[in-house]
Every structure is written in C-alpha cells, then in structure tokens.
Q: What sequence folds into this?
C-alpha cells in the first residue's frame, strides 16, 4: 500500500493551484518543456494510443499567427504569456499503434471507424492535456488553460496538411499572481458523486 | 517561482504509476473516496463548468449491473476490483453555472448550442477524469482506466431519466502488481511536440 504524496505536493498540484491570467516576464527554458513532456507522455491512454500533439507557441512570429484565432477576452493574456501550448490530437493516431501497442495488432480496432477514431482522439488527447497541466504544475509552472478560440482557424494556421486537430490551449509560465478571479465554488461530493 | 514537487511524488503520479489489471482484496474506505473527489473537483474546467458526475460502483449488486455493459476482456478485472468508477458528464451542466461561475451569466454561452454543449461536456468531464486518476494516485490508490464498454448500456442502466452520459470507466484500489503489460513505448518529444 502506497502512502499519499506529501501535503505540499497536493497543494501545489491541486489545492493552491489557480488558473493564471497574468504572467511574469520570465521565459520557460527548453529543458523544462522537455521535462513536462517526459512526465505527460507516461500518463495512461486507451491502448496507449497517445494521440496528443503539442505545439509550443513561443516566438513573436508564432504568437502573431495565434493571435487572430483567439477569443477577444483571451488575446492580451495569451500574448503576454511566455509560452502558449496548443494541445492537438492526431486523427491518424492508429497508424502509430504498431510502435505504441506492440503486443497486439490494435490498428484494425480503429481504422475505418470514424466515430470511434474521433471519440478516441478527443478523449485521449484531452486526458493527455490534463496530464500536461498537472505535469507543468508538478515542475513548478503555472497554467492558464483556455477553450475560447477558433479551432478551425488554429487548424488552418498550425496544422494545415496534417491529420492533427486542435483541442484546447494552455498558457504556461510563472504567474504574476495578479488578475485572479476569486476561487469559484465547486460541487460537493453528494452533489456530483454517488456510491452504489 | 515554485520548485518542483519531490521526486517520490513525481514517481508516484507519473513515472512509476501503471495501469492495473489485478487487485488486492482490500476495500477503499468512504473517506478516501471523498478525499479523491476533494482534490479532483479543484482542477480547472472551462468557465468552471464542472460537468463530471461520478458513480462509484462498489456493491455486488451494482457490479452485477455493470458487468453486462463491459467488453469481454474487461469483465474479470473489473469484477475483482474493489471500486470501479463511472465517469459521466452532465449534458445540462450549464444549468449549474449560476452557482459555479457566479461573476457573470455564462448560461447563455451554452444553452441551445448543442455542438458546444456536447464538446464542452466531453472535454471537461474528460479533464476531470484525468484529475481524478492523478488525485487517486496522489492519495496512494492505483488506477485501471478503461474505455472498452458499451456507453449506451451504461447510460441506460445507471443514468436513465437523467442528462448524464457515461464517458469512461476507471477501477481504483490497491493493485496486486500481477498481470501488468510491459510498459509500452511513448512518443519522444521531437515526435509529438514542436516549438515555434
């Protein structure tokens, strides 16, 4: 039986973590981006299908491409973040299953089944997006996830000619601690859960 | 600037965590289920919409209801788990936004927009499902997530007369350490990520 992780780690990952809207002017190093991926990639996906594809938008040129795709309320905070991540999903993820799930031939489970492909790509890239955020927090970064943007515009700008579709965005960096919303209420156990 | 959580915690959450298929005969207490939810619920969702609804399948009676909904390969391991969680999504999540997102009237962003409702419920309940797994691991539990089941059958059996739809399943408990697949490969940074 495994003990709980220490309280500081629980606080950092969950209890004290907030969605950040304002950022310190402090870059995120390439080594740290690699380290976040190296935790993210370990999280479980269905048949290890690992459909998430991640674009780290860092340069001014890349930010300028992202800017017109954003909902108006997300422009300023995104342009001022050191890094904004586009979490996408590879709709041809099943072509990689020979490498990723080597103990059986899982490609035929998906190939040709468009609804299952779409659902699997969306669910599992979203799981990986959540792992990404918790991995970033685990390594000392703050997160500001967003779904207020034009997915088709991002796909056209960043994923043209590929089988990748955008899922959601997440800025990462070091939050300034300014511009928080107050912590909003959450649903109680008895409201959201049942035990049968 | 925040430091990384300690290596033991990183290992417990990510590096050493495995998908479990065999379980010790050891129950999971009600207090621990509550504690997992109390971490899960803090994780970010779009407009704090919090669509996940969770059914903890614990009793023999509830397991018997779940059994015919499972893919054949998932029956034995699920029936032997102390708890299997059904992660569902409330398709009427927007009716709770008055409580959950009190600083603005966000209900009209969603009401009547069926594609946005469906996408938001799916994406955000999946994020919460990932938070749930990492919260369970943080508190010393092992996880065995599954999407191999008949969603419509689960919805009919467990969510009839509600607006909740099943998303995925996850057994939780104390893994026996038997019956692991070998760790499958993951995609390298350069394969799954790009920096622009």
A:
């Amino acid at each position: 039986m495994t003990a709980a992780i220490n309280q500081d780690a629980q606080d950092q990952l969950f209890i004290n973590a907030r969605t950040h809207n304002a950022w310190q002017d402090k870059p995120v190093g390439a080594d740290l981006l690699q380290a976040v991926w190296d935790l993210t990639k370990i999280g479980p996906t269905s048949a290890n299908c690992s459909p998430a594809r991640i674009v780290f938008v860092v340069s001014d040129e890349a930010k300028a491409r992202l800017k017109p795709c954003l909902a108006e309320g997300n422009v300023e905070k995104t342009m001022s973040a050191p890094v904004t991540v586009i979490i996408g999903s590879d709709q041809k993820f099943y072509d990689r299953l020979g490498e990723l799930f080597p103990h059986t031939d899982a490609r035929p489970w998906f190939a040709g089944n468009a609804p299952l492909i779409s659902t699997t790509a969306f669910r599992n890239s979203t799981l990986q997006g959540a792992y990404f955020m918790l991995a970033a927090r685990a390594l000392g970064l703050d997160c500001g996830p967003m779904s207020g943007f034009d997915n088709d515009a991002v796909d056209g700008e960043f994923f043209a000619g590929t089988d990748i579709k955008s899922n959601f965005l997440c800025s990462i960096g070091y939050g300034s601690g300014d511009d928080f919303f107050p912590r909003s209420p959450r649903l109680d156990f008895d409201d959201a859960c049942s035990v049968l």
The CA atoms of residues 116 and 188 of chain A lie 33 Å apart.
